[in-house]
Write a structure and sequence with these properties.
The complex is a heterodimer of chains A (633) and B (107). In chain A, 39% of the residues lie in helices and 24% in strands. Chain A is α+β, with helices and mostly antiparallel strands. In chain A, strands 1, 2, 3, 4, 11 and 12 form a six-stranded mixed beta sheet that branches. A four-stranded mixed beta sheet of chain A has the order 15-14-13-18, sandwiched between helices. In chain A, helix 8 runs parallel beside helix 9. By secondary structure, chain B is an alpha+beta fold. In chain B, strands 4-5-2-3-9-8 form a six-stranded mixed beta sheet. In chain B, a hairpin with a 5-residue loop joins strand 2 and strand 3. The two termini of chain B are 17 Å apart. The chains are: A alpha+beta (633), B alpha+beta (107).
Amino acid sequence: MALLQISEPGQTQAPHEHRLAVGIDLGTTNSLVATVRSGMAETLPDAQGRHLLPSVVHYRQDDAPLVGVEAQEKASQDPLNTIASVKRLMGRGLHDVKSVGSRLPYDFIEETETAKGMVKIRTAAGALSPVQISADILHALRDRARTSLGGDLTGVVITVPAYFDDAQRQATKDAAKLAGLQVLRLLNEPTAAAVAYGLDKAAEGIFAIYDLGGGTFDISILRLQRGVFEVMATAGDSALGGDDMDRVIAQWIMQQAGIAEDAEHKHIRQLLSIARAAKETLTDHDTAAMQLQFDNGQHWQGQLSRAQFDELIDPLVQKTLMPCRRALRDAGLSIADIREVVMVGGSTRVLRVRAKVAEFFQRKPHVDIDPDKVVAIGAAIQADILAGNKPDSDMLLLDVTPLSLGLETMGGLVEKVIPRNTTIPVAKAQDFTTFKDGQTAMAIHVVQGERELVTDCRSLARFELRGIPPMVAGAARIRVTFQVDADGLLSVSAQEQTTGAYSEITVKPSYGLGDKDIETMLREAMENASNDAARRTLREQQVEADRVVNALKAALKADGKHLLKRREFETINARLDKLLHLMRGTNPQAIKAAVEELEQTTRDFAARRMDKAIQKAMQGKTVKELDAEIEQN
Amino acid sequence: MAVTLTESAAKHVQKALNKRGKGVGLRLGVRTSGCSGMAYILEYADDVEEHDQIFESHGIKVIVDDKSMFYIDGTELDFTREGLNEGFKFNNPNVKNECGCGESFNV
C-alpha cells in the first residue's frame, strides 16, 4: 500500500493527487536531490545512505554509464572516460573552454568536427556533449527520487549559479529534458539557500549568500522585494575552496615531517586525506591528532591546534573577502545595508570561516541547515509549491514579463504601461483622454515590444470603448488597466470615469513567441534605439501640431469672423498653411518652430476670445452678485 | 475504542511536530472520496474541535472526530520504510477492501 505523509490542517489531498516534486542541486563536485515530506524538506539518500552524489560519470563501451562514487573509483585508472566537473563546460564552446580546458584532462573534439557551438568530449560511449553527461547525472538522481518516493515525478526545480547566462541555463534545461524530467523552474543557487532559511517570508531586505565549496567560491547579493529575489551582484573565485585548505595543511605536515616536495603521487593523496580529516576534526575539537604511515616505512605523528590551523588558512579566508567587497561595491551597497548572511557549501563548517564572515558583515551568519544540503532543500521547497502542494497563499512568484506591454497612442506611438522585467502578477493603470471634441469612442490597441512605434512592435489585441459622453478634447478621463496574472495571462480593461462605460479583453502575450523571438525583439530595440527616439520625437511633434491645428480651426470657425480683422485672419491662415505643409515633412524642430510661431500669432486672438467669454459670463450681473458667486465657489 | 500509534510512528510524529514548531497533536480521520469509497486524513492538528476524541499514544495526542471514529476504530498507525520510500501506514481492522494503492478503502 502507498505510504502516507502528514499534511497541514485541512490540506490532505484527495487520493492520487499529491504531486511528487523534487529539488535538484546539480553541482560541480557533488549533486543532491531533495523533497518535501510531511511538511519537512529533506535530501534523499541512496540505498547505502549516501546523500551526496559525486557529479562524476564513467563511460563504458556497450554498457550503461556509472554515476557517482562508482564512477569516481574509475577516475585514476581510466581518466579519459571518467568525466568530472562537467558543469564548468555547460553551454560552452571550445574557445570558452580553453582556459578551463587546460586543467580538464579530456579528449575534446575540435570545433570544426561538431556541428555547432557546444564542446564535445570523445569517450568510449561516443562523442558526448556536456548536456548529455549532465543528463546522466540527473537520470541517476531521478531514479533515486522515484524509488524513494514511490512514484513518477511531476516536476523538478534545478538550481544553477546566479551568474549562469542564457546558454548555460538552456543547456541545463536541455539536460533535464534528456533525463526525462520536467523542469518547473531553474532557480538561482543563492536564492534557493535563502528560501531554505525561509528568508522569502521575512521582511524585504538585502541578503548576502556566502558559498564556499570544495573548489569554488561565490558571493551573491540578493534583494528581496514583494516576495521576489533579485540578484544585485555576484562575485567569486572559481579556484578557491576547501581543497586549498587541505593543501596548506598537507604542506605544513610535509614541513613538519620532513617530506620532500616531490613526494610520490599516492603519498600526496594520503597526505591530503589526513589533512582533510584534521580540518573536519577541528570544527568540533581544539586539536587534531595526525598519524602518517607511508608504505616506504616513513612514519610521522603530530598534532595540529586550532590556532595553528587558523593561521594556516587565514590567507585563504582573506581571499574570499575581496570578492565580498567587490560584490558590495558593484551593488552600490555598504555592509550596513546587508540584513542577513547565509552560509552555503561544506567549507563554511570551518569555524574560522564563520568568524571571519561574521566579522566582515558585522552580523552572525545563518549556519543551522547543513551547508552541503541547503541549496537542494531550498529547491525542494520551491518545487513543492510549484507542483501545487501548498495553499495559494504560499505561492512564490519569480516570473517576469519578458517584453514591455503597452498601447498605441495618437501618431502610432507606443505608451508602455508595464515595462519589461516586471514581476508578475502585476496590475497597472494609466489615464488616457480623448483627442477630438465630441469623441465618443476610443480604439485600444494592445502591443508588446520595446520599440517606440507601433509598427515595430507586436500587435496583441484591439478593442473599442464606446459610450464616452461627448466632451471637448482632453476632458474625458479613461482609465486603462493592464493586468498580468500568475500564468502570464494579460487582460486589458478600459473605463470612462464619469459614465462608467467599460470594455475589456484577455490575451496570452507570450503565445507563439519563443525565446528566440523575444531575443530578436530585444536586440532590434537596442540596435534601433536612437533611430526610434528620433522617430518618436517627430511623431510627437506631428501629434501636437495636429492638436493645435484642430483647436485653431474650431476657434476660427466660431469667432474668426467678428473678432479678427481681415489682415490678421490672413496672417493666421498663412502660418497655418505653413504648419500643415511642415507637418508632412520629417523635421521635428521645424514643426515645433511653426507651432510656436502660430501660437504667437494667435495670442491676441486667444485673448480676445477669453475677454469675450468673460464678458458673456459677467453680463447683467452686479458686483455683489459676482462676489457671492466667488464665495460660493 | 482507541486509535494508537506504533512506537516508530510516534517517534517520527514527535520529530515532525518539533520541527514544525507548533501543533497540539496528530489528526486522523476519513472522508468520502478516492477510487474505493473512503480516503484517510493524516494531518497536523492545531486545534481540538467539539466532536473530537483524543487518545494519547506514546506521548502523542491522537485526535479523531466522532464521524471518522466509526471507520477507523482500532486502527494502529505505523511508520515504515519500504526500500528508500518511507511514510505512514494505517493498519485498520475495519477495512473490507481497498484500492490497489491503499490510499482509499471500503468498510
